[in-house]
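User: These chains co-purify. Model them together.
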Amino acid sequence: MSEFWNPYAPPDARRRRLLAVGTVLTLLLLWSAVAASGLVSPTKLPAPWQVLSAFAYLAWNDGDSLLLTATLWSAGRLLVAGALVIAIGIPIGIVMGAAPQVNAALSPLVDPFRSAPVVALLPILVMWMGIGEAMKIAFLFIGAVVYLIPMVRDAIQAVPQSYWIGARDLGATPWECIRNAVVPMAMPRIADAVIVAFSVMWTYITVAEYVNAREGLGQLIQNARRFSAWDQVFAGIIVIIALALATYQWMLWLKRRLYPWETQQ
Amino acid sequence: MNAPLPAAQPTTPDKHLLSVLVRDIVQEYPADGGGLTRVIDRVSLTFDKPGINMLLGPSGCGKSTLLHMLGGVRPLGVKTPTSGSVLIDGVECTGAHDDSVMVFQRYANRPDLSVFDNIAFPFRLKLWKSRVAEGEWRQRVGDMLKAVGLSDKAGLRPAQLSGGQNQRVALARALVLRPRILLMDEPFGALDAQTREEMQRLLIELYRSWPCLVVFVTHDVTEALVLGDRVIVLSSQPARVADDFEVGEPRPRSAEWQRSRAAQALEERILNQLHASPGKGQVRVTL
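Assistant: Joint model of the two components:
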């Protein structure tokens, strides 16, 4: 048993799991109690079992899985946008971090967007790109890349100068110092940036699929809302949260596999 | 004990070409609150043969700054040196020099690479890739691993090594290039006393197999006397050459020698020189 007021002595894994499951179960119980008491109209707050049956309906009905189809569409858009974020955002972030003059030139374009209302860009994107797939991908891309680029830049700048000096002393060209000494040392934090980018994209997926989506989880939720099927709306939201969490956990696992030395430093 | 460094071509650095001339070096930095602080004041030195040269001075006296001018990486944003020049084989040296390699106090080993890959790191760079064939450098890395006693740790990462072992990796990475000039910036300063002595013995052995021009910065009087063929004493800031003498005693220098009257006299001579130039820096005596 660890001390209660001691941030340096966390409880063991079993106890942590117990506490976490306890919270979720308590919440579910409260939710069930409120729904069963009849205090809140089921049109405003569907009961957990209603959400569960909506989930079952979405997962399998009439030889078809609406949920699976929607998930595949959303995940597909996310993957395409994510690939673009990685392929374009990481090089830009590395160059900004490695070359202060590029940083000075580009930061007025990049930094303000971190606090910009990206959602408000959606109508502009629709105006420019129409209502097809390109607009949705572009929206996800912009939403995530504005977080990723500054994080990658900061990751590069956080690498201790000693690695740069050490490589330079051994005769490395400036670019070799960046490629062979600085970037490898920044990789764990760059991986963190990618993880954040994917989390951000999962939160934006419903917005991206708000306009004229015929498929996708966002569309599924939109559609259910239109018919006031709140149990399906809840089920859809929970699925998105679960997928985002699974993505996060998997990427974190992958990062630890790829850069096991980070925690040993 | 460590195996001697196996012979390879060339077996020794080219003695005939070696010459490092430090001419009238002055270094000034912008001081807090305007003006300039002079850290090095008209230092001239000549190095014209292999040997272990100790740059001894109080902490913060500018000896590292001077060391970095001998073919190391110079700080950015400040003109280095302010005036004067360093000539290596008659050619003015203005930055990192191919013939000189530096070992730092913070060993700068890459945490993501194995011991082997850390030592082999220079051969990933164009400069060394074009000069040394892969078969040759693999052989050299293997030999260096043996020479520093880390053959059985080749696959480990730096985090799995002790501080002394990490410094062995750094030393191996420098010597694997067979440099004519080895610059050492208080390399053993962060180690405990026992490990420091081990590293000093290792350096003596490595030097015997690869007698290059070693310039070794320290603020430890004992270290200077245990290692140095020549001891250059720098005064506290601004650094001037306060004394410059040779130590004839062959290495390794026994504990008896360190307690001998000759050694005591040298130590006193150094401390007197340093006390004659009072400043805020400190020297250390570990005898």
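Chain A is about 75% helix and 0% strand.
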